[in-house]
């Protein structure tokens, strides 16, 4: 059986998902798309050849020729579309955030718990990146002992000048928040956010920022987020254990040696860096719909936890104080 997928939102992420589902992911077919920009939706549908561009997102969710839905629309729309997917009994892969607020995420958790089964996956694709997977494998093997420190770097070439400083956390650092929970397999219990001198190009935004997260076992994770770093997209991570460390760097494609310099090119944004992670994420999601063994991506609880912790980090940024994290009681459906 082929899983027939509909995509809501055909911007940068939605168009990439459409391309992958149409040629790089087995067991799936893209059958319908929706976007507020009808011309953009029509262009994506035409590029696939057999997908339909529908005029209403809820019509897409209820369509008989759509078995599962990818939500890649603007952040404020996620909650309504995910809830509609649950009501229709259809699996949903939702790009982060699951919802912009913890309260919205909790409404999704309640709906899924009432349905009685997990239908929602949240698009934290770094869980599928070969480098991060290798780091997790090393930690779980016991080779470096118990985790003590996690150092994360998240740098973009440039970002919108003057954007709210909170966006640095909710749009960028949230990936590292999820990686911390997933990699260390424990909850974050407190957060502090430091404000170094902002870059001139940031236009009033507090950029960079340094987040320090405390975990339940006492390990610390620091996250440097700098979205106007100027030189390229650069994601790195080092995990320090009691008996060693393991580090992830930007994968080197080729190295150029010229005029007395040896170096490598950096990607301009996240798409080339995490292209394989996105493909693996979609394939794993589709395999799960076929009842095949999967790695298991982020579920709705993970989506809620990431949003809730990001909100706590925003409070720490705005107050300049350490903030404790208090998550809701975890429903039985999500207990591992």
Task: Give the topology, please.
Elements (H helix, E strand, L loop, with lengths): L2 E6 L3 H12 L4 E7 L3 H11 L3 E2 L3 H6 L5 E4 L6 H10 L4 E4 L6 H14 L4 E4 L6 H12 L5 E9 L10 H19 L3 E7 L14 E7 L4 E7 L7 E8 L2 E5 L7 E3 L2 E3 L6 H4 L1 H15 L8 E2 H20 L3 E2 L12
Helix pairs in contact: 4-5, 5-10, 7-10
Can you give keywords for this protein?
2 domains, 24% strand, 336 residues, alpha/beta, Rossmann fold, Dihydrodipicolinate Reductase, domain 2
Task: Characterize this entry briefly.
The chain has helices spanning 12-23, 38-48, 57-62, 78-87, 102-115, 130-141, 166-184, 270-273, 275-289, 300-319; strands at 3-8, 28-34, 52-53, 68-71, 92-95, 120-123, 147-155, 188-194, 209-215, 220-226, 234-241, 244-248, 256-258, 261-263, 298-299, 323-324. It has 336 residues and is α/β, with parallel strands linked by helices.
What does this molecule look like?
This protein has two domains: 3-124 and 277-298, Rossmann fold (3-Layer(aba) Sandwich); 127-273 and 303-334, Dihydrodipicolinate Reductase, domain 2, CATH 3.30.360.10. It is 37% helix and 24% strand. The protein has ten helices and 16 strands. It has helices at residues 12-23, 38-48, 57-62, 78-87, 102-115, 130-141, 166-184, 270-273, 275-289, 300-319; strands at residues 3-8, 28-34, 52-53, 68-71, 92-95, 120-123, 147-155, 188-194, 209-215, 220-226, 234-241, 244-248, 256-258, 261-263, 298-299, 323-324. α5 packs antiparallel against α10 and α7 (166-184) packs across α10. The model has no long low-confidence stretch (mean pLDDT 95).
């Amino acid at each position: 059986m082929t899983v027939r997928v509909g995509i809501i939102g055909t911007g940068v992420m939605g168009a990439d998902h459409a391309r992958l589902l149409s040629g790089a992911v087995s067991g799936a077919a893209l059958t319908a798309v929706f976007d507020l920009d009808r011309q953009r939706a029509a262009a994506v549908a035409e590029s696939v050849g057999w997908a339909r561009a529908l005029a209403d997102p809820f019509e897409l969710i209820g369509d008989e020729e759509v078995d599962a839905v990818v939500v890649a629309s603007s952040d404020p729309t996620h909650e309504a579309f995910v809830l509609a997917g649950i009501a229709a009994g259809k699996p949903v892969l939702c790009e982060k955030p699951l919802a912009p607020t913890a309260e919205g995420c909790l409404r999704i958790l309640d709906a899924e718990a009432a349905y009685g089964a997990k239908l929602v996956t949240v698009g934290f694709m770094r869980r599928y990146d070969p480098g991060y997977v290798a780091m997790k494998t090393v930690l779980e093997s016991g080779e470096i002992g118990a985790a003590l420190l996690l150092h994360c770097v998240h740098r973009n070439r440039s970002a919108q000048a003057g954007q709210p400083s909170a966006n640095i956390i909710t749009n960028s650092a949230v990936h590292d928040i999820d990686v911390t929970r997933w990699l260390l397999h424990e909850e974050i219990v407190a957060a502090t956010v430091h404000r170094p001198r902002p870059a001139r190009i940031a236009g009033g935004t507090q950029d960079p920022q340094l987040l320090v997260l405390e975990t339940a076992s006492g390990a610390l994770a620091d996250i440097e987020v700098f979205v106007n770093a100027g030189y390229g997209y650069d994601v790195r991570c080092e995990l320090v254990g009691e008996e060693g460390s393991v580090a992830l760097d930007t994968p080197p494609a080729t190295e150029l040696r010229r005029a007395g310099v040896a170096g490598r090119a950096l990607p301009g944004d996240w798409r080339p860096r995490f292209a394989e992670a996105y493909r693996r994420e979609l394939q794993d999601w589709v395999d799960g719909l076929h009842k095949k063994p999967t790695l298991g991506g982020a579920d709705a609880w993970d989506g809620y936890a990431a949003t809730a912790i990001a909100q706590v980090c925003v409070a720490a940024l705005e107050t300049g104080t350490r903030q404790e994290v208090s998550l809701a009681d975890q429903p039985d459906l999500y207990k591992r």
